[in-house]
Amino acid sequence: MALIGDSFSDKDRQFAIAKVMGMMFFGGASATVLGGALAYFGSWRLVYLAYGLAEFVIALVMIKKLEDSKSTIDNLNFKKVYGQALSNVDMLLVIGIIFVIGYTVFGSFTYSGDYIQQITGYNIFY
Q: Is residue 110 scored above 80 in pLDDT?
């Protein structure tokens, strides 16, 4: 979010945040589906291997293609920054709501397939 704040004007910032959040949701949902398929047809180890290889390739692309940008601050005082953030009641409320939404949405994605299979006997991979 900080990168979006630095990279986009006030006019374009909300659209950029919406795109990033949408892709995060899509990525999380598709990762659940792909991970489940890899674990079903292979093993849980295959899920971690695929994830590790994908992260490695992404890291290499980022190192090679992304250009260094000028830092917006000279030094960072973590204690001061986190102290200010954690003392903001509104921010804590928003983070709590986002946590509950993420927990319920992704938790339901994770276990609903197995639950439906147990109830109906239907297996999507057959």
A: no
DSSP 125: T
Sequence-ordered alpha helix ranges (H) in 1-126: 2-7, 10-41, 44-65, 78-86, 89-120
Burial of 9 (0-12, 13-18, 19+ CB in 10 A): exposed
- Per domain, the residue ranges of the chain are 1-72, 75-126
> Between helices 44-65 and 10-41, what is the axis angle to 10°?
150
Q: What is the per-residue pLDDT for 29?
A: 86
Q: Is the four-CA dihedral 55, 57, 63, 69 of positive or negative sign?
A: negative
pTM across the whole model: 0.51
